[in-house]
Design a protein that fits this description.
Shape: flat
Helix content: 25-40%
Number of strands: 17
Number of helices: 17
Structural class: alpha+beta
Largest sheet: 5 strands, antiparallel
Radius of gyration: 40 Å
């Protein structure tokens, strides 16, 4: 509705005039005569009206916070002095609301931000008629929980131009750069190239720009470098980029949707078509090499092999390993998996059919078929499968005092135990009799007295174990020597951050379009 003087209009509860925007007195009169609410529905209705005009109220979120808290679920509606005080403060603020002036595009804006333990907010304002005028109050975030509000706080006010890449804005940033400012001042004052004595005390970057003096030009007060091809037929203007803008440019030309996360060469080409700064190649290369999305998508460029770590056991059933083979075709007994258990020292294996790969099944078989016959091992090794490292298996190890270990992630080869020794000879002190021995009628040893047999068996097993330990040690050292000759080595510390190579391929999608 057009006002009586023809210079203002009423629109959606606001009066818009040449001076600015203010609240409609007819709407605010409802707030002025509002009595204290008697239930949560009346309070929500009142807060809805106040929130509609919140940009006219300074510190609205702080004032209205107690009232909003009263509308929360499971909150009993009991009107106290705290709520009455907040209610009256909102009423007074709305009935005396200021006029919000219009922003003047092209002038400097002021962004004030602050944070506390209860809220965080920001105000965009502008200096009009010698004083700061509020433009609008941005959204205030409430109830941060355990998040430290200091993380969200900007401690110093900052200024921003309407167009950060306008000539005026870029010139201002260039003059704020101590390495570019002397070149601009020399260009504007003398026009001629200063002597070495004049620039000898400046930063090395300034001296680099001084060496490019003839190719540097001022255009609308902004410093550019004129690049020309070798034949002189092509040229382009490269903006001399201040350090404060380098990060923004690299993010846009490499990491944005139009940047495409290209490699060093293509990213450098895009940068040099538009900008120039000292040491541009090294900074572009470092940015591309340390880009997290690029590293995650491309995977490890060079596989680093660490030095081989030896772990030799020296006693029977000291350390055992187990794994599951399956699923296989289901048998008549309902089993379709095989649990394989092997002793690290003697290399004695045993296999047990199981109906599933669930942790309780695995734990039951280990106790009934291995631990009950051979005793409790000191260590139990498996890969990192969830069924082999579940709460049930961890509880089993806790009860029996077993140290649970794992193979290296994504490297089950570290669980290999092939040595070439006879497991039966290591465990029983003799080789197993095979059907071939019966077929070819091999002569049997002469019977011995029990005491003599036990003594011979003890001596024979001591010799076998002694030779086995020597053999294992020699083989391990040779293996380590050969492996370490190809190992590059990488020393990691406990607090180091590393990439985890965890390739996951989805069916129906090209590997080139998948990410890790």
């Amino acid at each position: 509705m057009l006002g009586g003087n023809g210079r203002e209009v009423t629109y959606l509860g606001h009066i818009i005039s040449a001076e600015g925007v203010r609240t409609d007195p007819d709407k605010i009169s409802a707030v002025r005569h509002k009595t204290c609410p008697t239930d949560v529905h009346q309070l929500r209705s009142y807060l809805g009206l106040c929130t509609y005009y919140r940009k006219f109220v300074k510190n609205f979120s702080i004032i209205a916070r107690p009232l909003h808290k009263l509308t929360e679920a499971k909150q009993k509606f009991i009107w106290t002095d705290e709520y009455d005080n907040a209610f009256n403060k909102l009423k007074d603020a709305l009935t005396s609301a200021p006029v919000l002036a219009y922003p003047e595009i092209g002038k400097q804006f002021i962004l004030d931000t602050d944070a506390g333990h209860e809220c965080i907010g920001a105000v965009l304002s502008q200096e009009i008629d010698g004083q700061d005028r509020c433009h609008r109050l941005f959204q205030v975030e409430k109830k941060f929980g355990m998040v430290d509000p200091v993380v969200h706080q900007v401690t110093t006010p900052s200024t921003s131009e309407s167009d950060p890449w306008s000539d005026k804005s870029v010139r201002k940033v260039q003059l704020a750069d101590p390495e570019i400012k002397p070149i601009i001042e020399f260009k504007e004052s003398t026009g001629g190239k200063p002597s070495w004595q004049d620039i000898a005390s400046f930063h090395p970057t300034t001296k680099r720009y001084w060496a490019l003096w003839d190719s540097l030009h001022l255009r609308n007060g902004v410093l550019y470098r004129k690049w020309e091809s070798d034949d002189g037929k092509a040229f382009r203007w490269q903006l001399i980029l201040p350090k404060t803008r380098v990060l923004t440019v690299l993010k846009e030309l490499h990491g944005s949707p139009t940047g495409g996360h290209f490699g060093v060469t293509k990213t450098l080409q895009k940068v040099r078509k538009r900008f120039y700064w000292n040491n541009v190649r090294n900074e572009v290369e470092k940015w591309c090499r340390t880009c997290d999305p690029c590293a995650a998508d491309k995977g490890p460029g060079k596989r680093i092999k660490g030095r081989l770590q030896l772990y030799n056991v020296g006693a029977t059933f000291e350390r055992i390993a187990f794994d599951i083979l399956g699923p296989l075709p289901r048998s008549s007994d309902g089993n379709n998996n095989i649990l394989v258990v092997m002793d690290y020292y003697t290399k004695w294996p045993e296999a047990y059919p199981i109906p599933d790969q669930e942790a309780p099944t695995v734990a039951e078989i280990l106790v009934q078929n291995w631990i009950s016959r051979y005793g409790v091992p000191l260590q139990l090794q498996s890969d990192q499968g969830r069924n082999l490292d579940s709460a049930v298996c961890r509880r089993l190890c806790e009860i029996f005092g077993i140290d649970k270990t794992h193979t290296t992630a994504l490297h089950p080869q570290s669980d290999d135990m092939t040595t070439g020794y006879s497991p039966s000879q290591m465990l029983f002190g003799r080789n197993l009799r095979l059907p071939a021995d019966l077929l070819f009628s091999r002569p049997t040893d002469a019977p011995l007295a029990p005491e003599e047999y036990v003594e011979n068996l003890r001596t024979r097993m001591e010799e076998v174990h002694h030779l086995a330990r020597d053999k294992i040690g020699m083989t391990s050292e040779k293996m380590k020597t050969r492996y370490d000759a190809r190992a590059t080595g990488q020393n990691f510390h406990e607090i180091d951050q590393v990439w985890l190579w965890n390739p996951k391929r989805r069916k129906g999608l090209s590997p080139k379009l998948q990410t890790n």
